[in-house]
């Protein structure tokens, strides 16, 4: 290698840390190492030699310089000839390694020897230290500024992510609201709106068995016939969810058509069964039909398998109006007879589905509780009563089911 | 055929029905114990359709141990009855528990499946107070 040049190795022996440090610094100045590299090399050499010097044994510092076409480098060796073990080189400010009983640092030198920041030809140890300190402080400041900038960036990123989450949550909430709104509109479309009839107060409460299927098999219908009497249908179709809603709608529509066509009330349950069963052999529904004359308070009932309405009088007496009959899809479908009753002003008629009375699995127990609840709530505004009954009947739910409660009061 | 059923859990999310078949002089008797509802209805239908019930046979359901009975229970009784009618066999019920008796009365099912009056167990008073 003709383009290789090497200066002869220089070797000095040291017995104190201060002396060793001064020698390393002088070496660094000679080779015009940067102040930072000087600091790192000095601190590293001093640390490796520390234990040896404290033990009173000398160390030897060797330096050699090599130059090739492309680079030049300085090799620094610390020899501790009497050491029983090699000093550790882990985590030194300037990494070094063990090589045949010495600790070695290879320090690459810049392509061109740059003049040191120090103008003085022979800087004093204090000047060297001050320069190193100044650079260390500047570096610490730069790092601190970097840290602040990164922390700020991180904060901004975090708040951006947070804002994104908030935005997503708002979107989610909007979708939930829209979804709920759509379902409510769908339910409203299925159920007739409030009906105002002079002489009567009508109120309704409906709740499905599950929140995932907002509509169930419980449905009602009310309308006024040409002669002024009010017709109410309450139906409970077998099953839960939309399929049972569809069955219940078929029943209320068939009943409505038959009633408006003038079919006698006592035939409507049987006739509805005859009409619908050929199209749906699986259809099964209980149905209660109520006719009210708003002027006289006269009530006529027909029933197919449906739980009996409860009549609560103004004076607090109560009784169930049981009309025998079998519902849609039952053998021998039809109401066995009609029930006639006269409502006095203030009397309350409670129509419901079995979800109201069988939430604790026992119909007797449910009927007893319904009687006492209805008697207790009878003086509340009619609009509040169905909800109040449902709330009281459902304090414990062992058997969740669609629930409907409908109240009719003859105005006082 | 005997289904070994664990203890019914009245408040649990799942209901249990056991169906025990015995042969009596008047025909096979299935004694039900537990809840007859949407979840257990297929068990009863399977028990009835698996019976060797030739034409003319009357299969009797003993309902004294039924603790819960709803519209799905009614539906399965009517299905079982229909399945037996197809074979020329008949379905009868006896010893209705109080809960079953009330539902039979409300729904008018007692006029379709007339319980044997001598063995009825339900004796509740009218729940409506005067």
Mean pLDDT of chain A: 89
- Name the overall outline of chain B: globular
Distance between the termini of chain B: 48 Å
SSE order of chain B in H/E notation? EEHEHEH
CATH class of chain B: Alpha Beta
Name the beta content range of chain A: 25-35%
Family (chain B): Belongs to the anti-sigma-factor antagonist family.
Domain STAS (chain B): 17-130
Protein name (chain B): Anti-sigma factor antagonist
Pfam family, one (chain B): STAS_2
Question: What would the keywords be for this entry?
Answer:
heterodimer; A: 412 residues; alpha+beta; 8 helices; 25% strand; rod-shaped; B: 130 residues; alpha/beta; Transcription Regulator spoIIAA; 3 helices; 4 strands; 27% strand; globular; disordered N terminus; disordered C terminus; hydrolase (chain A); Serine/threonine-protein phosphatase (chain A); PPM-type_phosphatase-like_dom (chain A)
Describe the protein:
- Chain B: Residues 17-130 form the STAS domain.
- Chain B: This is Anti-sigma factor antagonist.
- Chain B: It comes from Streptomyces kunmingensis.
- Chain B: Pfam families: STAS_2.
- Chain B: Belongs to the anti-sigma-factor antagonist family.
- Chain A: Residues 197-410 form the PPM-type phosphatase domain.
- The complex is a heterodimer of chains A (412) and B (130).
- Chain A starts with a strand and ends with a strand.
- Chain A has 412 residues and is an alpha+beta fold.
- Chain A has a 5-stranded antiparallel β-sheet, with helices on one face. Chain A has a 5-stranded antiparallel β-sheet with strand order 6-17-16-11-12.
- In chain A, helix 1 (17-30) runs antiparallel to helix 2, helix 4 (241-260) packs across helix 5 (265-276) and helix 7 (363-377) packs antiparallel against helix 8.
- The relative contact order of chain A is 0.08.
- Chain A has helices at residues 17-30, 35-54, 125-190, 241-260, 265-276, 354-357, 363-377, 385-393; strands at residues 5-14, 59-67, 72-79, 97-99, 102-109, 200-207, 218-224, 230-237, 285-292, 298-304, 310-312, 318-320, 325-326, 334-335, 339-342, 348-352, 403-410.
- With 130 residues, chain B is α/β, with parallel strands linked by helices.
- Chain B has a single domain (22-124), classed as Transcription Regulator spoIIAA, CATH 3.30.750.24.
- Chain B has 3 helices and 4 strands.
- Chain B has helices at 41-49, 71-86, 98-107, and strands at 17-24, 27-36, 58-69, 90-94.
- In chain B, strands 1-2-3-4 form a 4-stranded mixed β-sheet, sandwiched between helices.
- In chain B, helix 1 runs parallel beside helix 2.
- Chain B is globular.
- The chains are: A alpha+beta (412), B alpha/beta (130).
- At the A-B interface, strand 12, strand 13 and helix 7 of A face helix 2 and helix 3 of B.
